[in-house]
Amino acid sequence: MVLLACVFLGLGTGCGGGRADFIGSRAKDVCDAEWPVCSKVAGCILGAESYTEGRLPGKGQFIVQLQEASTVRVRFFLEDVVAAGEETVVTFQEEGCRARTREAVSGRTALDSAEKFGEFSREADLTGVGDHLIEFTSDMQARYVLKVEVLPLRNR
After folding, report:
1. 3-class SS of residue 19
2. Is the confidence at residue 7, as pLDDT, over 80?
3. What are phi and psi of 101, to 5 degrees?
4. Is beta strand 70-83 parallel, antiparallel or unpaired with respect to 130-152?
5. What is the pTM assigned to this prediction?
6. Which CATH class, in words, describes the domain spanning 2-155?
7. What is the DSSP letter of 41?
8. What is the mean pLDDT of residues 75-83?
9. pLDDT at position 11, please?
């Protein structure tokens, strides 16, 4: 019965927590700055106290600053989904863009995860200290709220 209620209520409400639960006490960053990284420019630096939001289809990039080797998890809360699209990709760069990890998933898989768990996420272990460029692109049609989590590898 609860699952049926979740389906009727839709994504992001009631089941698995909503937008406010996802954001918590974080402050919104509109990501309109110009931070140089890897011969590119990112709009913001995201961390434990910030989040950003936008519309898909589209792409985005931001910086995550690491003090030590860590797992970086990029989490998307999806709203007003119109179409799953073909593919969503999150690319994690090591500092100085000396190496990268590309995490691609089908649009249907991303949407299924968001419906089941209240969010869609991808992660990578990054070993360098400093600024790391994170890029994403998706042809999904939806609004999103994005935040990152940094989990030091020494804690595993």
Report:
1. helix
2. no
3. -125, 125
4. antiparallel
5. 0.86
6. mainly beta
7. E
8. 95
9. 43
Q: How far apart are CA 150 and CA 126, in angstroms?
A: 10
Length of the chain (residues): 156
Question: Which token pair is 42?
Answer: 């990112």
35-65: per-residue pLDDT in tens?
A: 999 999 999 999 999 999 999 999 999 999 9
**Quick one: which of 69, 25, 29 has its CA closest to 45?**
29
Question: C-alpha angle 58/54/133, rounded to 5°?
Answer: 70
- Tokens 């590119």, residue? 40
- Cβ pair 87, 119 in contact under 8 A: no
Q: Please spell the DSSP secondary structure of 88-144, one letter per residue.
A: EEEEEEPGGGS-EEEEEEEHHHHHHHHHHHS-EEEEEEE--SEEEEEEEEEEEEEEE
